[in-house]
Each structure stands twice: as C-alpha cells, then as structure tokens.
Amino acid sequence: MRNPNMIGLVRNEVTKIASKRRFAVVAIILIVLVSMFTYAQYRDIQEQIKKQGTLDWRVELQQDIVDTQNRLASSSIQDEFRQFLEFDLKQNQYYLDNDINPNYPGAPTFIRIFFSQGLTLILPLFIIVIMADIVSGEQNDGTIKTLLSRPVRRWKILMAKWLTVLLYTSMLMALTVAVCYAISGIVLGYDGWTAPILTGFQASPSGTFSTEFVHTLPMWEYLLMAVGLAWIVTAVVGTIALMVSVLVKNTATGIGIMMAVLISGTLLTTLGSSWTSSKYLVNVNFGLINYLDGQAPPIEGMTLPFSLAVLGCWTVAALIVAFWNFTQKDMY
Questions:
Q1: How many domains does the chain have?
Q2: CB under 8 Å to 317, separation ≥6 — which residues?
Q3: Whose CB has fewer CB within 10 Å in the chain, the N or C terminal residue?
Q4: Cβ of 198: how many Cβ atoms within 10 Å?
Q5: Mean pLDDT of 168-175
Q6: Residue 87 in domain
Q7: What SS3 class is residue 154?
Q8: In this entry, which stretches build a coiled coil (predicted)?
Q9: Does the residue 164 lie in any domain?
C-alpha cells in the first residue's frame, strides 16, 4: 500500500468532516444569526428616526453621550461597569470632537461589530461543533483502527487532523465575512470599506484613559487585523478541542468540556479583576479585538503581546499533550 503524503491525509480528513455536513449546519446557523442581528439593527435605525427624527450620526452620538453621563450620575453603579461607561463616554467624545462617525452605516461596520461581539463565544463555538469528534468519533465507530493500519506514522495522522482544524478555521472566517457582508448589506448598504475608524485608545482597569497613540485606519485595514485576531483565537480553541478529542473518548463529554472552557472564560473576564493570576488562563485572553478598540483589559498588566504569548503557550502545550497521548496510547 502506498504511503500517503500529508496532502492526501488532509484531503481524507476534509472528506470525512464534509460527509457529516456540520459545516453546512454551522453555515445555516450563521445565516440565521446574522439575519436576526441585521433585522435588530434595522429596527434600531427605525427607532432612531422615530425618536430623533434624523439619521444624523452626530445627533445620535451626542444623545449617547448624554445618556451615559446620566447613568454615571447614579451612585448604584458597580465600579467595573462605571469604568466601562467612562471609557465609552471618553471614546465617543473623542469621535465627536474629531468629526468621525464610529458606526459608519454599511456592511463593513456590521462585520466589525459581529466579530467583536462574537469572538469570545460564537466563533469558537462553531469550530467546536465542527471539530469536537475529530478523534473521539473515530474511536467510537472504529474507523481509527483502519486509519492506523495504513503504513503512515501516527504523528502524521494527528498532524493532518490539526492542519484540517486550521483549514476549517480559515473557511469559517471567510464564511462569516461573506455571510455578514451579503445579508447586512441588503439593509445597511455595501459601502464603507474606506471609512475611517480610530484605534490606539489606551485604557486600564484602574480607570486611566489615553489618546496619545490614537490614529485612523481605513475600515478594510482594521477588518484585516480583526479577522486575523479572530482566526488566532478560533484556531487556539480548535487546537484545544483536538487535544480534548484525543484525551476523551466520549464526544458529548468533550463538547461539554469545551463549552465549560468558553463559558467560564466569559465569567472570569467579568470577575477576574479580583484574581490577577487568572490572566494566565487561556480563556481569559480570547478578547483580542478589544485591544484594537482600546478597551481596558479585564486584569491589570494584560496587553495584546501578553495575550498572544499566553495563547501561544497554551497552543503548544495542547499540541504536546495531544501528540504524546495519540502516539503512545492504545487506540484499539
């Protein structure tokens, strides 16, 4: 029997995943979600016209600033939420002072918001749905025995599976951009790729805010960075899901573990300021796009290079555990 090369192994993995139609299911869910969010934004626009009688972004932004100031006047606001409101207030005021619309109407802005809001849960969840049983499923149905009987080293088999994870991560990013652009553009229009957006704001959990390094970028350049950061986070989640699939034979258990990782990350990001060591946990560092927006990190000392380093270390550790276990344990 001819020894298959890596391309052949990856093609085999893609064929197996495609036969399960999970990517198609994810695509359908994504279309439904984007349609719902687009409709919600359409209703928001209609409410703005009804309330303010105009779509002038300056009027809307001024009203947002006034509303935020009124909320800050309340003494019942928690400190963490107060810091968030103060950052939002200062950022909006900076946009207004520099005559830049922070939410330029168009599909590109919708893409930016969707990636920012969906990075820590929706996109990682999709890759889990696609990849959760990439190893454990084959152990359950016995196909792993046939695969291991071929004249190919085990590490090559697992490497092909990991490359497949990265491939589907890239496909998921492309699908998300395409669906967001196609559907939201129907309501919001398809312009806005060159609209200016500000980045470089610096905020800290202690409440400091700096505009020293603020600069403008065209929307397309910002989106390239945002999608790239989303790709990194989703690839890390996919890699950890691969490790869990190697370690846990039951697919449902593996999905449960990964769901716990995602949900606990959301909770720790909110509550982590009182547990500074949690900044070294992988799921606390999923909000990479927040660094582009200049939002304060959940824990003092966290920066984009720091979070990338933490994610890199966890990825390497997950690969080491997965490869060692896959090459050593009895799959029969």
A1: 1
A2: none
A3: N
A4: 19
A5: 96
A6: no
A7: helix
A8: none
A9: yes
| CA–centroid distance for 119 within its chain | 2
CB count in 10 Å sphere of residue 56: 12
- Residue span of the structural domain in which 124 resides: 6-21+106-328
**Residue 145 falls inside a structural domain:** yes
pLDDT value, residue 4: 66
Q: Provide the sign of the torsion angle of the four alpha carbons 14, 117, 217, 211, taken in this order.
A: negative
| Helix (H/G/I), strand (E/B), else coil: 271 | helix
Q: Please tell me which residue, 147 or 291, carries the higher pLDDT value.
A: 291
Closest CA to 13 of 151, 176, 143, 204: 143
Question: Quick check: 315 and 308 in contact, CB under 8 A?
Answer: no
> d(Cα 230, Cα 260) in Å, to the nearest integer?
20
**Residue 120: helix, strand or coil by DSSP?**
coil
Residue found under tokens 């972004």: 57
Reduce the DSSP state of residue 21 to 3 states and report it.
coil
Cα 166 to Cα 6, 159, 160, 236, 326, distances in angstroms: 14, 11, 10, 9, 19
Mean per-residue pLDDT for 121-148?
76
Percentage of the residues of the chain whose pLDDT score is greater than 70: 89
Q: Tokens 């946009």: give the residue.
A: 95
Q: Are strands 196-199 and 202-203 parallel, antiparallel or unpaired?
A: unpaired
Over pLDDT 90: what percentage of the chain?
A: 40
Q: From the CB of residue 42, how many other CB atoms can be counted at a distance below 10 Å?
A: 14
Inform me whether the pLDDT recorded for 1 exceeds 50: no
Q: Is residue 147 within 8 Å of residue 134, measured between CB atoms?
A: no
Domain contains 91? no
